[in-house]
Amino acid sequence: MEIKLTPKSEIELRTARLQEKLTQQALDGAIILLNSDMFYFTGTVQTSYLYVPASGEPVLMIKKSLSRGKAESPLKNIVPIKSPKEIPGILAEFTYTSFNRIGMALDVLPVNLFNRYQKIFPNTQFCDISPAIKEIRSIKSPYEVELLRDALSVIDKAHLAVPSFLREGMMEIELAALFEAEMRKRGYSGCCKMRAFNQDLFLGNTLSGSSGCAPSFFDGPVGGNGVAVTHPHGASWKKINRNEAVYIDYTCVVHGYTGDQTRIFCIGELTPQMVKAFEAAVFIEAEIIKAIKPGTPAEEPYLLALKLTEEMGYKDSFMGYQDDKVKFIGHGIGLELDEFPILAKGLKTPILPGMTFALEPKFVFPEGAIGTENSFVMTEKGPEFLSSTPNVITYIK
Amino acid sequence: MEIKLTPKSEIELRTARLQEKLTQQALDGAIILLNSDMFYFTGTVQTSYLYVPASGEPVLMIKKSLSRGKAESPLKNIVPIKSPKEIPGILAEFTYTSFNRIGMALDVLPVNLFNRYQKIFPNTQFCDISPAIKEIRSIKSPYEVELLRDALSVIDKAHLAVPSFLREGMMEIELAALFEAEMRKRGYSGCCKMRAFNQDLFLGNTLSGSSGCAPSFFDGPVGGNGVAVTHPHGASWKKINRNEAVYIDYTCVVHGYTGDQTRIFCIGELTPQMVKAFEAAVFIEAEIIKAIKPGTPAEEPYLLALKLTEEMGYKDSFMGYQDDKVKFIGHGIGLELDEFPILAKGLKTPILPGMTFALEPKFVFPEGAIGTENSFVMTEKGPEFLSSTPNVITYIK
């Protein structure tokens, strides 16, 4: 693995797509601040302020570190800055002086910071550009898809390594430590990012048996008990027993891109009920993959899964136990974990070529969580797997 | 280690301190949303909305998971909620109907979410309550200090374990994986939290030799190269050589509280220059510890260190290399890594008993980063170490 710098052609394409949106929305330009957006449009996350005009070259103003930002970003106009107060003056030097309507990502920008920008641009109307950015970012280029494949290859290797260290009687947290180290030593950068407010990032779920059924604040089918009330999810102090489902669901961030994958392990044997549920999850995944194609509305995978689970009698366990369910079966993945498309009830936006997403049919029973999760890219020919570990339960003697 | 639930007496004390501030600021109450604030005032981070009236019992409205939130929080009034739209109706049931001025943490609340609350409370003036919350949270109770000691004991054990796995020729990222696993298996919850916008959390710094001098966006003296442009800090793919300073600076979050500690290792021998700089850092720490007492202005440790480093001829290397310096020598630690007090130039707020902070005199040279970092609590008698690993360079043959 090596550090990959974003090619100039990628940045140019992304900028052009943003400028098209700016023009459509009659905006003079956009100020980009959030790290994930900053990286997408510049290739760097050095502490910076990016101005993308509706037409013309963007200006990247770097506070710290300028030398590193210049080495990382292929943008033409990169200048030093000490405070955002200098932005209007710097932009004037690039002949950008009209700021009637400016886009900012108001889904993430804190109020106090917004007020600061309103003071710097007293006559400007700031408009929320985040829906446009999310839409642009949801369509991945072939370059981005390759980065995501790298992330999946790292999580693949970690999942394949589990039988070498999973032992009866070890604590979930010990297994988590070993699993995370497998990803980390291969280039996992650390916690994945979520865009939604207050969605604290965490490392992943390493759960055994009944831990899979712990009720959770997390907007996912499975939560776990965690090792602290402040981080009430993921691996706990529970010991892993024979004949329990060991559920390992992790994101893996490599080159900034977030793969997401779940595999099931067991020391000994699972109950027939759990085996049957696992097979149902694999079947649902296969049916969804057969059914969806470019243009399929985002809610269809969920609705199809719902229909199938009801037919199979799994209504109470699908995507959470009883009343503690989530109403989606997948989500977009990229620089953040909660990207478009969200494969949820009520969302009719089409799944388009270039969209990358995780699909996670899962069941939760009092005896544990079971199911599968894989990452995909939608191509012109339909969805394509981004990983290669076998979609099976791995038994350890 | 076990999961610790916040005692009722802690929550009552914290609530009383917030209510005092609300009364002082003529606020009817505060709506608390951010996880770290939520945990502080309720004992849970289940997806919730907390209302703290200027007087009377707080109301915790839980969306997911109610059962878990009830088990975790000692608050009296805990009710279910589906959407924040229901907040005024629920509060009316508790006879809270006056919302002229309400406090919210506007330093973290995104604009779109703020607008949503403004619609729910159309006649309310929302005021920033974050300075008051930060001030309250900066004074730790003896209970909180004990939790922090647990965090430091975990990072102590990880630092002490390093000689058992640090080997010449291993990559920084491999060392990071092993170090993190040592913390993780003992109850480290995962990435620490920072309150400031865009301060992406990361796992820590495991740097060797020249990596310690990489310029960085991070608001700290030492950055590192990282394994991805999106996460441009921390361990890299560089191999660790003999006679290099191996710099391991990590936060460790246990029970939600963030310990912070740096130790230096070396396979072989360090140059006399590096050894001397290390001794200077330890000397500076000792001088600061002697000099500060309850009431000392927050900038004094930094100014004292600056004076000492100038006298010792380390001006160019202190807290960063040449132009890439930070202007502080320590920071508050607690539920977040960037708490009060900030031991920085220009900050005159007093360091009070109960304040917990990391002190990190460090030097950066082209050949590497070196220094020390320990976590402290200010007591009536002066600062007290929270950890116990020896403040020395650990040599490995």
TrEMBL record, chains A, B:
SUPFAM superfamilies: Creatinase/aminopeptidase (SSF55920), Creatinase/prolidase N-terminal domain (SSF53092)
Domain Creatinase N-terminal: 14-139
Domain Peptidase M24 as annotated: residue spans: 146-380
InterPro entries: Creatin/AminoP/Spt16_N, Creatinase/aminopeptidase-like, Creatinase_N, Pept_M24, Peptidase_M24B
Pfam families associated with the record: Creatinase_N, Peptidase_M24
Coiled-coil spans in chain: none
Record's protein name: Peptidase M24
Native organism taxonomy: Bacteria, Bacillati, Bacillota, Clostridia, Eubacteriales
